[in-house]
Amino acid sequence: MRIAVTYDNGEIFQHFGRTENFKIYEVEEGKVVSSEVVSANGAGHEALAGVLANRKVDVLICGGIGGGAQNALSGENIEICAGAEGDADKAVEDFLNGNLVNSGVNCHHHDGEHSCGHHDEGGCGGSCGSSCGGCHAPTIEGKNVGKTCRTHYIGTFNDGTQFDSSYDRGEPIEFVCGAGMMIRGFDMAVANMEVGEKVNIHLMPEEAYGESDPDAIFSVQIEAMPGSENLEVGQKIGLRTAWGQSLMAIVVQKDAETITFDTNHEMAGKELNFAIELVSVE
């Protein structure tokens, strides 16, 4: 049996759709015999259920996860144990001993007061974008919905700058169309495409990662946050809520007394363009 855990510096990362790494455990006769940390191959447009399926994962242990992502994982026959937090190794041990309880769909991990004093009451609204696996997203219709699609794509900003390309990685991405594994606008474009067809789409923020939420930008006193004096503008950092959950942030401003963080998705508020080629549908 192979168990994957959303992973960040020894602990369970709380945003399934934003996780940058998984720790995968090889289990034999109820005991962990080996483990390794592997990349999630990028965030945003990557089909994380497909990443885990390709590594023959049987069980996923994670924190927050939405209904769309749960459906996609179920489609890959991957058992889910959501709502876990804290030490990753301990969570796996608890799972093997039958002491870890699955909370089910729990896409409310933005709630709560951060230990640095910020409070985000947005729940899983627009600022969440697709990072919660598409929770609460309206139903998408089309002949490819519910089917496993493989597509190549090139993503660019309005100025022509390329931010991502499956061609550069040498293989198309694989995802279940309409399951919330992709941003909504991408899913909608693929829903009625023919194999071999190529389309160009332009997405407004509400069809991609949502608008930037001003409440997700906050400042704290440097003296109240030990270690923050060493951070630099542009640096990414993992913050922790009062409930012990992790949250990724970027330093956007700093002066002698205060430091300002932005916990919005890095693509929030941006218009995106995609050139999409549908490779196969199963």
In short:
The protein has 282 residues and is α+β, with helices and mostly antiparallel strands. It has helices at residues 48-54, 67-75, 88-96, 166-169, 184-190; strands spanning 2-8, 11-12, 21-28, 31-39, 59-61, 79-81, 148-156, 162-165, 173-176, 198-203, 217-221, 236-240, 246-254, 258-262, 272-281.
Structural commentary:
By secondary structure, this protein is of the alpha+beta class. It has helices at residues 48-54, 67-75, 88-96, 166-169, 184-190, and strands spanning 2-8, 11-12, 21-28, 31-39, 59-61, 79-81, 148-156, 162-165, 173-176, 198-203, 217-221, 236-240, 246-254, 258-262, 272-281. Strands 1, 2, 3, 4, 5 and 6 form a 6-stranded mixed β-sheet that branches. Strands 7, 8, 9, 10 and 15 form a 5-stranded antiparallel β-sheet that branches. Strand 12 (236-240) and strand 13 form a beta hairpin. The protein is flat and about 55 Å long.
The overall number of domains is: 3
**SSE class:** alpha+beta
Task: Please state the overall shape, judged from the principal axes of the Cα atoms.
Answer: flat
User: What is the rounded distance between the termini?
Assistant: 26 Å
How many strand units? 15
- Report the CATH superfamily of the largest domain: Dinitrogenase iron-molybdenum cofactor biosynthesis domain
- Please work out how many helical segments DSSP would assign: 5
CATH top level of the largest domain is: Alpha Beta
Q: Sketch the major β-sheet.
A: 6 strands, mixed
CATH fold naming of the largest domain: Nucleotidyltransferase, domain 5
Mean pLDDT: 80
Order of helices and strands: EEEEHEHEHEEHEHEEEEEE
Unreliable segments (pLDDT under 50, ≥5 consecutive)? 104-138
- Portion in beta strands: 25-35%
Fraction of residues in H or I helices:
10-25%
CATH architecture of the largest domain: 2-Layer Sandwich
Q: What does the radius of gyration come to?
A: 19 Å
